[in-house]
Design a protein that fits this description.
single chain, alpha+beta, two-stranded antiparallel ribbon, 44% helix
Length: 185
């Protein structure tokens, strides 16, 4: 029985020809089973991705066991999203996390997922991924919360609006303060 929080081994987006759009492989040092040696090199990763795409290119299924790994995937317009995990992981949790991630990305891009939109907004996609998965640990499964954290303005960048009314208010406040000080003398 796996009681570890480390659930995800990799996140992959492949296009309709099986080419990598985005891939992030997790090899946490603090994993209870030790650091994984699987899929370390680019050559191994590409071979894994090509074989995975060959098995999942036609829509219909959403989960398979491939090369000793559990692969959950979702088709979108011209891309396929994958969560790769160990064979003993909870499929339902992984499916919820993948659905949440896909929904959060759709909210951020305001369109269904497509390769062009992903490439143009890669920064938002990576932030969204980091808010969903941290070093292989599923952190959040609320798509609205993830999307809002990714798009939230930082508190130190609040916009200060200066207009004629604000100058008038400042002048009147200063005038009152000066009159009060003079009255105290």
């Amino acid at each position: 029985m796996n009681l570890s929080l480390y659930a995800i081994d990799a996140f992959i987006i492949l296009d309709s020809e099986g080419n990598r759009v985005l891939a992030k492989y997790y090899h946490p040092k603090a994993h209870p089973n030790g650091q994984s040696t699987a899929l370390r090199t680019l050559k191994d990763q590409r071979a894994f991705e090509k074989g995975l795409w060959a098995k999942t290119k036609s829509p219909g299924k959403d989960i398979i066991l491939y090369d000793g790994k559990l692969a959950l995937f979702r088709h979108s317009l011209d891309v396929i999203l994958y969560f790769i995990a160990g064979p003993a992981e909870n499929e339902l949790l992984l499916s919820v996390a993948l659905g949440c991630f896909q929904d959060a990305m759709a909210m951020l891009l305001r369109n269904p997922l497509e390769k062009r939109g992903i490439m143009e907004n890669l920064d938002l996609i990576l932030l969204c991924l980091d808010e969903t998965i941290d070093d292989g640990i599923i952190v959040d499964t609320d798509s609205a919360a993830i999307a809002s954290r990714v798009t939230r303005a930082r508190p130190d960048t609040t916009e200060i609006v200066i207009n004629e009314q604000s100058f008038l208010n400042a002048y009147q406040t200063m005038k009152r303060n000066v009159q009060q000080r003079i009255g105290q003398l």
